Amino acid sequence: MKKLFKLLFTRQTCTAGFNISQPHNLTAADPDKDGIALFDLTLNNDVVLEGLDITEYTVSYFLTEKMAHANKNAYAAPWKYTNSIPKKEIVFVRVSLGVNLEEYTIASFR
Fold it and tell me: N or C: which end of the chain has fewer CB within 10 A?
C-alpha cells in the first residue's frame, strides 16, 4: 500500500481543462534524399491552438513524451529543427495554459 501511495504522488499528471487539435505531420524538401531535412515545427502552433487564444497558451516541442511531461529540454529553435532519425522521428508538442505548468496537453506528430 505504501508503494502505491508513493507511485500515485510522484507520477506527473496532466490536468488540462482544455483540448488541442491534432498537429499535422510535416514534410520538408530533401534534395539528397537521405531522410534528413530542416523543418519549421512552429507551423503546427496555429493547428494545435485552433480556437484557443495564442496569448494565453505556451507551445513547446520535445524529443520524447517523457521530456514533454517533465517540461525539460524543449527545442530551443523549433522554427529551424533538423531531424536525426530519417522519416520515422516523432515530435511531441506540449501546450500549457500560460505559466501554469501543471495544466497542459501533449500530442505527437511526425
Answer: N
What are 45's three cell numbers?
A: 502552433
Strands 38-39 and 81-82: antiparallel
Segments of 22-67 assigned E as strands: 38-39, 57-62
77 grid coordinates: 529553435
Under DSSP, the state recorded for 93 is E
pTM of this prediction?
Answer: 0.82
Does the pLDDT of residue 7 top 90, yes or no? no
Q: How many helices (H) and strands (E) does the chain have?
A: 3, 5
Paired with 93 in beta bridges are 61, 107
104: exposed, middle or buried (Cβ count in 10 Å: 0-12, 13-18, 19+): buried
Collapsing DSSP to helix, strand or coil, 74 comes out as: coil
* Joined grid coordinates for residue 94: 506540449
